[in-house]
Amino acid sequence: IVFGDWSSDVCSSDLNAKDGQQPDLDGAAKAFQLCTVIDPKRTDAYRNLAVTYMRGNNLEAAKEAYMKLIAVDAKNDAVLNEIARLCMQMKDYSCAIEMSQKAILAAPDKTEGIVNLALAYDMTGEREKAMAEYDKALAKNPNDADLMFNVARLYFNSGDFDKAVQMFQKVISQNPEDYDANVNVGNAYLNMAEDVRKKLVEKEKTKVTVSEDEVARLKELYKEAIPYLEKALSQKGDNNTVWYNLGVAYINIGNAEKGKQCFDKAESLRK
Description:
By secondary structure, the chain is mostly helical. The protein has helices at residues 6-11, 25-38, 43-55, 59-72, 77-89, 93-106, 112-123, 127-140, 145-157, 161-174, 179-205, 212-235, 240-252, 256-270. The chain is elongated, with a radius of gyration of 26 Å.
């Protein structure tokens, strides 16, 4: 049987629909499957097949196609990273970890595999391992705002609010308009304030004198939160939780009027 040059066009074709029509994903999948039969070592056919399945939300089939690709090209770090991300989407984190580790071995000078490994560890709750991988990635790309954000979020979720603030502020120094970073800095200060407040309440319960410096420190933490929450609300003013948190900050620095305005705004948005 002579297939001729037509197979090259089919196997390398894109999946874009013509003239506004929906792409024929089933037809494309059959064509790419045929390509893998014609030439089992043709990696672009497996990749196109995987992408076709992903566009049809058939993630298991996409993973199977990718696995066949790396059976042919075991050191293709780009594909290994694609599989890692796909496995994370499927919540198959052991697979994501394995594929990320293979990607790192295939391309030790690149950071993509390290980042994927960090994310996979992060999603499994292995925060120490995740942080170790993020540190490696940041050592290679110290100005990567996305990496800094992920590290800051990890600190935040671990309750290390001081370090979270430091890292989120680095993100903000690169992009002052980063909404999520501003919200998280504000919330980190509120969490630190709440920790201090609880300690002071315990002191009062046990008849231990609370110093003026301790009270001043508590008020300062609430005050620190305000500009970040206000910055976030200047970008997206429809978040009732952020308005409520801003109200908490104002109330605790002694500005009851502004606090009430924020609470009223939060309540109106809830309705």
